[in-house]
């Protein structure tokens, strides 16, 4: 069997990412990190495998692999179980960071037993900080996802047929997405959110509260996944909001557009334009050094000034944010929320989604993905922003 290199990233890119993680270790005074989450392993190597990455504050990395077999590299070690890791270390660390936010309790206990003398530290905030500022390589991956996602959104009006339900249209959009190369996966950190491929909301279904931390809700097709489309027929005068999977490269873009069959109410049209205006204003404000919470405050202020605060970020149930970082996962830093401690930095990639739910009409508004540069903030999702009519 032909062996494959573990490391799929260019050497310079892999070194840059490793330096970012080891810098976080140094800043926290922690000697080493042991990480096994798929998103972390993909970030460090460009591939997913079963095993662990062991990183030191000196910037050294060893990859302990259980499967797949036949991966190779100077820093690759095959193990049958994590208890074998200490056999391959020159010295046991006095402090070690584990992904405490996302690793199951039983797995944490097992890893603690492997390093009984080491002080345990939470690696999750360190990895979040390292991944919050994207490299040029990562930004290009996200840009390519945005280009391909835009192609799908431009097809949506052609996919509509009279009498369609939200489910029937969503299936056609998902098919178009997959044929364009969408990987189909929403990689989400933690266990508090679930979603399949797309969130398509027609009319008042957008006002159905969901247990998940999404800007928009929807009753869903079954109580086991209570979010999104619920079989509603697309009718004149109701909005159709499409928030469709943008993962084409392992790095995601997030984009929402609003469609309609026939004219919408004047207040819905006003709210949609307000959403566009908020995105324009916030993207201009999002310069390095700006507190993320200042963006939320400005968005809320603009909604109030327009007399639309009752409908802003939900009606019956409101979301507590107006934007979020994204990349490998859909919920990265910075978080654009009123109590966020994040500071906008060059290399941040985030989505802004100032949406409104108008009773009797549905959800309106847009969502775009932006990248913060030294001189400007670039929009990476460039499908048409005005309401798009099926007829």
Description:
The protein is α/β, with parallel strands linked by helices and 391 residues long. It contains eight helices and 19 strands. The chain has helices at residues 11-28, 38-45, 105-114, 124-132, 136-159, 166-180, 266-285, 292-305; strands at residues 4-5, 32-35, 50-56, 61-67, 71-72, 76-78, 95-98, 119-122, 198-202, 239-244, 256-260, 323-325, 332-336, 349-352, 356-358, 362-364, 368-372, 377-379, 388-389. It has a six-stranded mixed beta sheet, sandwiched between helices. β12 (323-325) and β13 form a beta hairpin. α7 packs antiparallel against α8. The chain is elongated.
Gap from first CA to last CA? 56 Å
Strand share of the residues? 15-25%
Anisotropy-based shape: elongated
How many helices does DSSP assign? 8
Listing every helix as H and every strand as E from the N terminus to the C terminus, the arrangement reads: EHEHEEEEEHEHHHEEEHHEEEEEEEE
Unreliable runs: none
Give the structural class.
alpha/beta
């Amino acid at each position: 069997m032909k062996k494959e290199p573990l490391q799929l990233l260019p050497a310079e890119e892999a070194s840059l990412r490793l330096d970012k993680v080891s810098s976080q270790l140094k800043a926290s005074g922690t000697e080493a990190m042991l990480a096994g989450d798929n998103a972390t392993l993909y970030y460090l190597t460009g591939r997913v495998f079963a095993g662990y990455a062991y990183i030191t504050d000196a910037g050294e990395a060893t990859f302990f692999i259980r499967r797949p077999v036949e991966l190779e590299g100077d820093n690759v070690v095959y193990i049958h179980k994590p208890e074998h890791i200490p056999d391959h270390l020159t010295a046991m660390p006095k402090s070690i960071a584990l992904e405490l936010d996302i690793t199951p309790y039983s797995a944490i206990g097992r890893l603690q037993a492997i390093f009984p003398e080491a002080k345990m530290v939470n690696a999750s905030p360190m990895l979040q900080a390292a991944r919050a500022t994207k490299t040029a390589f990562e930004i290009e991956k996200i840009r390519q996802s945005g280009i391909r996602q835009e192609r799908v959104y431009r097809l949506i009006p052609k996919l509509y047929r009279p009498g369609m339900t939200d489910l029937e249209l969503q299936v056609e959009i998902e098919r178009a997405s997959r044929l364009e190369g969408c990987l189909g996966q929403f990689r989400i950190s933690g266990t508090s959110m679930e979603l399949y491929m797309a969130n398509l909301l027609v009319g008042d279904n957008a006002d159905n509260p969901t247990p998940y931390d999404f800007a928009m809700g929807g009753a869903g097709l079954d109580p086991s996944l209570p979010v999104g489309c619920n079989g509603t027929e697309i009718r004149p005068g109701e909005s159709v909001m499409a928030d469709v999977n943008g993962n084409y490269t392992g790095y995601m873009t997030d984009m929402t557009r609003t469609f309609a069959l026939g004219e919408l109410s004047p207040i819905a049209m006003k709210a949609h334009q307000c959403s566009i205006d908020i995105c324009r204003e916030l993207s201009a404000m999002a310069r390095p050094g700006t507190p993320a919470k200042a963006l939320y405050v400005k968005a809320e202020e603009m909604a109030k000034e327009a007399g639309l605060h009752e409908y802003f970020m939900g009606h019956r149930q409101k979301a507590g944010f107006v934007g979020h970082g994204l990349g490998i996962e859909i919920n990265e830093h910075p978080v654009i929320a009123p109590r966020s401690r994040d500071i906008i930095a060059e290399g941040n990639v985030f989505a802004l989604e100032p949406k409104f739910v108008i009773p009797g009409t549905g959800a309106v508004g847009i969502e775009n993905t932006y990248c913060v540069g030294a001189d400007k903030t670039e929009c990476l999702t460039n499908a048409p922003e005005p309401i798009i009519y099926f007829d």
